[in-house]
């Protein structure tokens, strides 16, 4: 670790910022120094979703108890607790970027996506400080992941109904089979339920999708075609036992966007 720090400072071999970041990720010496700094205890069920705000000042969590908690990173205090109204486990929760942490999106096993406007104050956190802004019912099965874009209005979702959908909070929307916009990607003709979705922050048109087969599908939104045969690339993550199981999560690397990882 010290050698890498020195090379970064003197611009020695491998001293570029990108090389330094890539070489330091998950190194044994770095991971061994990690320590628990606190325990955040407010949920009454398994916590399935965690996400930092873009400035790192707040953390949002979602749970099987169908509640969302928003925490202050400075002192680990509870800033707000929201009874979402979901009827099943929350699987994903995100702050909308450039919203001042005032807009939170979550999705759950009831197939719904809910958007809340949150007001923060110095008083004790209460549910009444969060206002339900939108309920989207475009998905027909469990909604698994929310992926935000680099603006306060647009986000993507994926579901076990096999679809990836795009939402824009600026557009009027009334959910029904006839009125919901067409899915951005539809894997349902191939009987693939979706588990994971990731957007490349360095190349925003690139999406990685995974589900109930062994592959990660890479798509370019500038040339969307068939969900399976129209992908730009597909990858099959390895497994320790050599079996070809489902891929449960996918993520683009944050440092350069050149890597994509999947988990079985």
Automatic annotation (TrEMBL):
GO terms for cellular component: Cul4-RING E3 ubiquitin ligase complex; cytoplasm. InterPro entries: DCAF8, WD40/YVTN_repeat-like_dom_sf, WD40_repeat_dom_sf, WD40_rpt. It comes from the Eukaryota. This is WD40-repeat-containing domain protein. It comes from Thamnocephalis sphaerospora. Pfam families: WD40 (PF00400). One of its GO terms (biological process) is negative regulation of fatty acid biosynthetic process. PROSITE patterns: WD_REPEATS_2 (PS50082), WD_REPEATS_REGION (PS50294). Keywords: Repeat, WD repeat. WD repeats lie at residues 40-72. Gene3D superfamilies: YVTN repeat-like/Quinoprotein amine dehydrogenase.
